[in-house]
Structure formats: structure tokens, C-alpha cells
Write a structure and sequence with these properties.
The protein has two domains: 327 residues, no CATH class; 180 residues, IlvD/EDD C-terminal domain-like (Glucose Oxidase, domain 1), CATH 3.50.30.80. The protein is globular, with a radius of gyration of 24 Å. It is 39% helix and 13% strand. The strands form three sheets. It has an eight-stranded mixed beta sheet with strand order 7-8-12-11-10-9-13-14. Belongs to the IlvD/Edd family.
């Protein structure tokens, strides 16, 4: 693996040389300036600190105390972000103990895919990431800060905060998580109720009771979807206080970890061990994040998000890098939907610290990288505990305490990670294979073409899908409608698969970070609206999806395939995608967005 790790990293470094060099030059120029309170005009400074208590004004202006900007995703609509309500006071209190000052520089929007799933609001979800990045930039644009703390957890929020922070790469930054909610109804039982509801075997009352038992308190959802994958990746990148990811919001250690984040960011400001985020996040750190994603069977959304994150640091990656690393990265964790455990059980079994330790010691990650703590990545191989003297970090057992959840590199769940690049005459897509049954790794069946998930759901309800088929769901890419997750397709397709039918999905849209046992070739690029070949597929065409060798093809005579015309989105469909629930405001993003493999970025 060490050879593959170095080969991929070097290929990324060579590919990124011009953009990375230009990025670092911009950072270095900004670092050379005087600090904000000394550089800005007197009126600017007065405006900036007008609302600060007088003693804090004196500290930051006269004593030149370090000044921390906080960007927060707090709202009490999202269970994961509700705990952040009290964090600014904790952060201010801790900063004052160390002679520093704090201002909440700005808030960023934070929407929940679970609330908007299958609704028009979901079409704003992907674009909310770049909106969050821009909101982060607006907050930090006042340009008086010596460091930043970033408060956010969920799907688009962490990538958006990270993209925004990297555009202020001269600042030392630490991410501050809030942790997962306590365990409720187990995820397997929850999925079974969803499948029964899809079949009409239970009603809305039973379904709501099940869902409310699963999502019942403060914290992130407890399955290993995009939100919790975010936290795993930030640990692997060295951007958290070590081990902070999966401590419950109301556990006593959580406040201690938040206070530690203040001390940590102050320890890497200009007069200390200066570690600005733009220098910290280099090619090796991006590769480490990818390896952590693959080793844990994490969310497929990150093959989009981390391309965008890397680009924000001047680093160019693509899906071939993910696929190459996946072939040599062992799968070390099984957390729902890739297993039955939730993230609390994952944490109790060793969590990110155990996985990172195994990857570092096995040579699967770069350990010669910077992090927000002095010991670098190896400090993230230990687990925090609360002692009489405050936080301490302790070694984990050599062997797993529960091999159904985490394993060592000597006996992984599989020799390769759970992600595969698919190529063929339908374009380039990815598939998450870590929870797909072995007998479903290859699917060959006739296509049924749908222009949206509503059409597929209606066909299921009419009983028209009791057969082998590949659902080709098109016009779901970023240009078409913002690339919503098609999570509502999982229950009906799971029902059909359980009945013995060979089913799969091929789409230019996204599936949830919790996509699981149904084979799903997703993020197909180019998308249909950009002239992608998915627009040539006709109902009845044989489709072969082979996740073992990594191919996806329409089995159509080549001459006929070349002569086929592209399906066209109707004007009514375009109008429906662009209007209502605020979608009009995102028209510019739909026009300017790049492909999924280019990170679906809207800012280049």
C-alpha cells in the first residue's frame, strides 16, 4: 500500500503543481501583512470592535491579544447543530483565561437532508455547500482575526465551512464538533419499517413512531452517513482536537473538548507553532482523508465534496484517485448501513482513533503531516478521557474489543475499500460496494427510464416493477435540478431486491450517504442535461453494471448507439425544477456549476 499511497499522492502533486503553488503564494503574501487591528484604519477598527466589552477592546487593540473569529452553523432546527447555542459563551470564557478575545464572525445556513428528502427543498441541498462557503468568507472578510474556530457537523455544512476556511488559508483553524445523539431504535429495524411502509403493510402512524424513535434528541443521526463521515475525515486530516468527533453533546467531556479547541487554535497562531490551514491541508492530508473514507465505508457524497475541498486548497483530485486508493485500502469498520452498529457503538469499539492508528501503523496513511496538535497525526491514534486533572489521551487496546465493528489491518472485513469507479459507454460514475451482497455485484437487466424519482415511485405503487430491471433515473445532475439525493428510492428497490429480483439504479443524481445494499451507479458524469450518454438510454436497453471490474455499459450496437439522439428535458420540467421553495434564487448556480467529478463547484 505504501507504494500506491505514494504513487497517488505524487500524481496529485504533479497534477496540482501550478494551482497549488499559486495558492500558497497568495497565502504567503497575506501572512506578511500587519495584524488586522494594526493594519485597518481607525474607523474600521472602531466598527469592528464597537460591541466588545471595554477590557476586550483594550486586549485586542492595545495588548495585541490573539483574536479568534467563530463561524457557527447554529440553529435549533437541526438536532446536530442545536448544541452550538451555548458554545460562544464557553469559547469566550476559555479564551479570556488565556488572554485572548473572541467574536462570532458570522453564522452560516445549515439545512437538513433528512427534512427535505424527496421534497423540492432537497434541490437546494448540494448548492447549500457553496452558499455556506461564501457565508464563511463573508464572516471572515472583516479581516481582523488571528485564528478561526468553525462550528458545524452535518452533510454540506462541514465541506462548506472547510472550503470557506481554505479561502482564508492564512488563518489557523480548528473545527469544533458537537457529537452524535444517543442511540435510539436500531437502524436495521428502522429500515424494515420503511420497507413495510413502501409495501403498504404499515401506515403513516407506525412509520412516524419508528422515525421518531430513531431521531429523538440533540446530536447527529447515528448512522454512518455524510455527517458522521465528515467527522471521520476531519479527524484523519488533523483538524479536530484528537478524538472529538463522536462524544455525545451532553457528555461531560464535550465541554472540555470545546475548551481544548480554544487552547489548540491559540497554540498555532503566529507567535506560537504557526500552522495556518492552507499550509496544513496539503496533498498528503487530502489523500489521508480519502483513505479514511474508504477504510470506513463512508459516504459517497464525499467523492464530490472532497474534490471541491481539495480544489479550494489548489489541489486537483478526481475519481480515479479514489478508485486507485480503494483497491489497496482495507475495510476496517462496519457501521450502518455497512453493518448493524451505530456511531456510538463504533466510538465505544475504538472509533476513529482505532481506525487511524491501524492505518498509520500499517503504512496506509501519511504520518509525516502537520495537524492542529504538536504530535501530528499520531496524536489522533489515542482516545480522550476526562481525568481529575482534565483531558488526557490514552492508548487503545492492540486488538479490537468488538471485531463485528472494527478490525485491525491484519484481519480486515475486506482487502479493499468500499468504493469503485465505473467507466463505460454511459460515462463515469461511482458505486459504494461495501454493503452490496456478493451476488449483486454484477447486474445485467433491461433498463426502465425515468425522468425523476417520482416516476419510479409511482410505477412501484402501480405494481409495474415486479421484475429484473435497471432503473435509469436521469435529469438529476447539478445542472438539471441541483443534484438532489434520491434516498426515497432505497426502500422500494430494497423490497424488490428482497423478493429476488435483480435490480439496480443508474443515475446522474446522488443517493444518500446512507445508500446501502441496492447496487447504485451514481453521480454519472456527464449528466443528461450536459449531453451525457445517459440521455441516450431507452427503456428496454440491456444495461450491464459490473462493480467487480468497474464497468457500466448499455449493451447497444455501436452504430445505433452513435446515431441515437439525446433525450431533451421538457420546458415544463425545467420550469418545475427552477421554481418554488426558493429554487429561483439558485438559477445562477445551476447554470455555472461544474460536473460532479469536478466537485460540482460553482465558484470557478
Amino acid at each position: 500500500m505504501k507504494q500506491i499511497l505514494n504513487e497517488v499522492t505524487e500524481r496529485i502533486r504533479e497534477r496540482s503543481a501550478p494551482t497549488r503553488q499559486a495558492y500558497l503564494q497568495r497565502i504567503d503574501q497575506i501572512i506578511q501583512r500587519p495584524r488586522g487591528a494594526d493594519r485597518l484604519g481607525c474607523a474600521n477598527v472602531a466598527h469592528a470592535f464597537a460591541a466588545l466589552p471595554n477590557n476586550d477592546k483594550f486586549r485586542v487593540v492595545a495588548e495585541k491579544a490573539p483574536h479568534i473569529g467563530v463561524i457557527t452553523a447554529y440553529n435549533d432546527m437541526l438536532s446536530a447543530h442545536q448544541p452550538y447555542e451555548t458554545y460562544p459563551d464557553i469559547i469566550r470564557d476559555e479564551a479570556r483565561k488565556h488572554g485572548a478575545t473572541v467574536q462570532v464572525a458570522g453564522g452560516v445556513p445549515a439545512m437538513c437532508d433528512g427534512i427535505t428528502q424527496g421534497e423540492p427543498g432537497m434541490e437546494l441541498s448540494l448548492f447549500s455547500r457553496d452558499t455556506i462557503a461564501m457565508a464563511t468568507a463573508i464572516g471572515l472578510s472583516h479581516d481582523v482575526f488571528d485564528a478561526a474556530l468553525l462550528l458545524g457537523v452535518c452533510d454540506k455544512i462541514v465541506p462548506g465551512l472547510l472550503i470557506g476556511a481554505l479561502h482564508f488559508g492564512h488563518l489557523p483553524c480548528v473545527f469544533v464538533p458537537a457529537g452524535p445523539m444517543s442511540t435510539g431504535i436500531d437502524n436495521t429495524s428502522k429500515s424494515k419499517v420503511r420497507e413495510k411502509y413502501a409495501q403498504g403493510l404499515v401506515g403513516r402512524e407506525e412509520l412516524l413512531a419508528s422515525e421518531s424513535a430513531a431521531y429523538h434528541g440533540a446530536g447527529t443521526c447515528t448512522f454512518y452517513g455524510t455527517a458522521n463521515s465528515n467527522q471521520m475525515l476531519l479527524e484523519a486530516m488533523g483538524l479536530h482536537v484528537p478524538g472529538a468527533a463522536f462524544v455525545h453533546p451532553h457528555e461531560g467531556m464535550r465541554e472540555s473538548l470545546t475548551r481544548e479547541a480554544v487552547k489548540t487554535v491559540l497554540s498555532i497562531t503566529q507567535n506560537q507553532r504557526f500552522t495556518p490551514i492552507g499550509r496544513l491541508v496539503d496533498e498528503r492530508v487530502i489523500v489521508n482523508a480519502i483513505v479514511a473514507l474508504l477504510a470506513t465505508g463512508g459516504s459517497t457524497n464525499h467523492v464530490i465534496h472532497w474534490v471541491a475541498v481539495a480544489r479550494a486548497a489548489g489541489i486537483i483530485i478526481d475519481w480515479s484517485d479514489f478508485s486507485k486508493l480503494s483497491q489497496s485500502t482495507p475495510l476496517l469498520a462496519r457501521v450502518y448501513p455497512n453493518g448493524t452498529a451505530d456511531v456510538n457503538e463504533f466510538q465505544n469499539a475504538g472509533g476513529p482513533s482505532f481506525v487511524i492508528r491501524e492505518l498509520v501503523e500499517g503504512g496506509y496513511m501519511h504520518d509525516d503531516v502537520s495537524s492542529v496538535v504538536l504530535g501530528g497525526l499520531r496524536d489522533f491514534c489515542k482516545k480522550p478521557e476526562l481525568s481529575d486533572n482534565g483531558l488526557i489521551w490514552v492508548d487503545l487496546p492492540v486488538e479490537s474489543v468488538d471485531e463485528t465493528i472494527v478490525r485491525t489491518t491484519s484481519k480486515p472485513f475486506s482487502a479493499s475499500g468500499g468504493l469503485r469507479l465505473l467507466t463505460g459507454n454511459l460515462g463515469r460514475s461511482v458505486i459504494k460496494t461495501s454493503s452490496v451482497p456478493e451476488d449483486r455485484q454484477v447486474i445485467e437487466a433491461p433498463a426502465i427510464v425515468f425522468n425523476g424519482q417520482e416516476e419510479l415511485l409511482a410505477a412501484f405503487e402501480r405494481g409495474e416493477l415486479e421484475k429484473d430491471f435497471v432503473a435509469v433515473v436521469r435529469f438529476q445532475g447539478p445542472r438539471a435540478n441541483g443534484m438532489p439525493e434520491l434516498h426515497k428510492l432505497t426502500p422500494p428497490l430494497s423490497v424488490l431486491q428482497a423478493k429476488g429480483f435483480k435490480v439496480a439504479i443508474v443515475t446522474d443524481g446522488r443517493m444518500s450517504g446512507a445508500s446501502g445494499k441496492v447496487p447504485a451507479a451514481i453521480h454519472l458524469s456527464p449528466e443528461a442535461l450536459a449531453g451525457g450518454p445517459i440521455g441516450k438510454v431507452r427503456t428496454g436497453d440491456m444495461i450491464r453494471l459490473n462493480s467487480i471490474v468497474g464497468t457500466l455499459n448499455a449493451l447497444v450496437d455501436e452504430d445505433e448507439w452513435q446515431s441515437r439522439t439525446q433525450a431533451v428535458m421538457t420546458e415544463a420540467h425545467k420550469h418545475n425544477n427552477g421554481h418554488g421553495i426558493g429554487r429561483e434564487l439558485f438559477g445562477g448556480m445551476r447554470k455555472n456549476v461544474h460536473s460532479a467529478e469536478e466537485g460540482a463547484v460553482t465558484w470557478i
